[in-house]
Model the fold of this input.
Amino acid sequence: MTVEIADGYSLSEKLDEVTNRVSTIRTFPPEAEKPQISLHSVQQRVITIVLSGNLTEKETKTLGEQLRDEVSNIPDISIVTLKAVRPYEIGIEVSESTMRQYGLTFDQITRAIRTSSVDLSAGSVKTETGRILLRTNQQAYHHDDFASIVVLTRPDGTKIRLEDIAEVKDGFSEIPIIAKYNGKRAIAIDVFRSGNQNVIEIGDKVKEFIRNKQAQLPEGITLDFWDDDSERIKIRLTTLKDSAILGFVLVVVILSLFLRPILAFWVALGIPIAFGGTFFILPYMGVSLNIGTLIAFILTLGIVVDDAIVTGENVFQHMQRGAKPLSASIIGTNEVAVPVFFGVLTTMVAFLPLFLLTGTRGAVYGSVPVVVIPVLFFSLIESKLILPAHLSHSKSLVASNDTLGLFSRFQRRFSGGLESFILKYYRPFLNYLLIHRYATFSVFIGLLLIFVSLVLGNRIAYRSSISAPSDTTTITLLMPAGTNFEVTREKVNMIEAIALKLKDDVNERFDTTVIKNVFATAGGMPFQQAGYQTKGPSAGVAELGEILIELTPSEIREVNYSSRDLVDEMRGLVPAIPEAEQFNFSYVKDESQVMSFSLAFPDVEKLKEASVDLQQKLTSFEGLYDIEDSYERSNEQFNLELRPEAEFLGVTAANLAQQVRTAFFGTEVQRIQRGRDEIQVMVRYPEKDRQSLAALNKMMIRTANGTEVPFETVASISTDRSLPSIKRKDRKRVIGVYANGDPDKLDIASMENEILNDFLPRLAATKYPGLTFEPSGRSAKIRKDNESMAQGVYMVIAVIYALLAIPLKSYIKPLIVMSAIPFGVVGAIAGHWIMATLFGFNDGNPILTQTSIMGMMALSGVVVNDSLVMVDFMNQQLKHGKPIEEVVRLAGVRRFRPILLTSLTTFFGLMPLMFEDSPQAVWMIPMAVSLGWGIVFATSITLLLVPVLILIFNDFNRFLIKLYGIDLRDHDDENTRIPEGV
Done:
């Protein structure tokens, strides 16, 4: 049973409440295990050690336990567990004929064991020299101990021991599981990290241990490691660090081309200062440097210098106009202090909605604002306090060309070329647009509508996420309940043989190691992927099978062959298994089926029919496969019923049930602790006597007076069918319906909407009145995330508007500044199209994802910065009584360079991440594309459309004054009003 706790409640308190409620239940059967109640916790597995070779099961587990203990003794490694092994068990098997021969019953045997195998304190004796403890310690722990227990003593003194009447097996539980690694019997040892333990250090220590231990092992026994996350993380961290360094270099190059070298240096210095401050406080926030935080740092590479660029460039302009460095630093910094401060605040706010995401996505994306907000905070301090202090001493900023070096002279010619471009091309073009401002506005609106229609018309598709092929392919098999273990094992062996053959073929085809290892398990799913729908425990279930195929890490794979390609080949090679309940291939780690629905209805048979109807509907969608439900086929069941004669013999239903259960399932006589293992001691029939109905018919039932009667005398058998399990959600009987497919190529959202909004409502209204349904699994998570993002969009827009209204002191001008947001979104959409069409992103298919939307939300805070700087400059100029048309033209010219620079540094800072091919970065690339290309497009909006909107607003205001006498400027501050008569 799983209890999901809503947000905002204490998990520990709810755990206590559930525990207290369960403890009050008095109707559990006496034979039932005590309920185990615990909080679900996710441990991060680092690496798996695989022990394989030609050993017996006991030898393999004994050596595995030794290795587990040795690994757990390595410093900084605390959690190590065995996997794909059976628990120990002591089985005492007595046949019916033997018990009849000696006149014994199961009760007598169990009583003899319990009274002979004892470890019990008997108090103490107080003597003159001190207290002496008394203890009876006759506890049996091993085979010989139990075999020597006296079960019966005859009058002549003969002792009948347990070994005389029973077969004592000191071995393993009867639950079936066999694991093989590259064809040899194996077990796995998982190594986890906890707390602040370093993943890479743990992986390195384990691999060093394997190298040293392998030299000590006999020939034929192999130690290897499997699914090494530490190496994968190491490779990806190195790749991302290279991207970060490249991004930093590109930002510095851009700054050096457009700004004086010394100014570019001081501006770029803000990056290490902001990053250093963030690195300092992250440990106090409980955040470590990992792939998520490193990607967040890359996201801020270009954004972090925006405020420094605006401040430094404004100071430089004052120096160019003849101001002393000190006074230029003070005046220039103060002039842009307000827009820069509120611009940084809006950017911070734009990243906050990522905190609203829950579940796994919330844990992943939540690291982004945790990094971005401190980085922006420290960049604000640097740009307002440290940068002006440095610039106040930089006299070389206005030095003559005669005293400059070669690069400085080149930079000034390059910068002069930009200024010539502004005056020769930009200013006339802006004048033209301002004259034809209504046509210009119409063109931009038309462009906006075109891109929105491309998305709504599915020409640019929307997907919840982009699936990055994992380095491990997983094949899971679930046979019908009651399937013999040998049948499951046969199927697993068949799939394993095909996988091993494909391994050799692929490696020979590419003349390099592409497929590394194959791990096959029959009787369990020890490597069960998160989110995969199973019907029981992951190990020791006869119906379960799992085959994993490991490829070399994609970062160092020399050929174009992914786990997606591997799945395609395996699907073609593995024959269908029609009798399987589930048979799935997966190449994406920790992902469940792309579509999941939960159906609820009181009538089980009708519920199954509804499930079949839904599955038939899903088969009509091209591209879906592995369509199945959670309904388990019923098992054949024998019902034991008392005959009337049983009453006269004193046999009750409880007596019958207990004796049959002991014979065929077994009675737990004791549970002992042997070393680290808790071992059950079970008494029952031999295995051969539990494999046929004839054994039940020959069974003798003991009556109340101790006599024995045949089973057929007191009971009869009737056949029936029974479901292996019953699933309920919120007390309603439910069936889950699942479908798989490639989410990158299918419009899953449209399919889901058709099912949820059309097909299922029609089914409930016409064929199954009362049927209820809802999305589940991955689908439910995606819908919840979409709701969170929608709330985040509303919050971002509202807070940004409020923040802009403060410095602008207006209700109207924030809307003009925020006009850059929808056109920034156009740039983000266009960016996805460019990346797909020109650079082959997503195999040439432009796709928007949830991460793209998150990037657009973050973009909304970034793009308003430039508009805010421009509008603030206009406000300052209007205070001096200049005509608004002159102010608008002047603002475009004076703010062209800082606006262009902030956009270029943001774009080039994000460029390495946009072109990153690491699978771990796939989930953040759409956000980088939205931010990078959105800010580029928003630059043209700021430089061209915002001035146009200012004049259109002025025209509209004059129209209202003439027609109705309404002056919208009454809402503005007196000092920022547009002059009368303009």
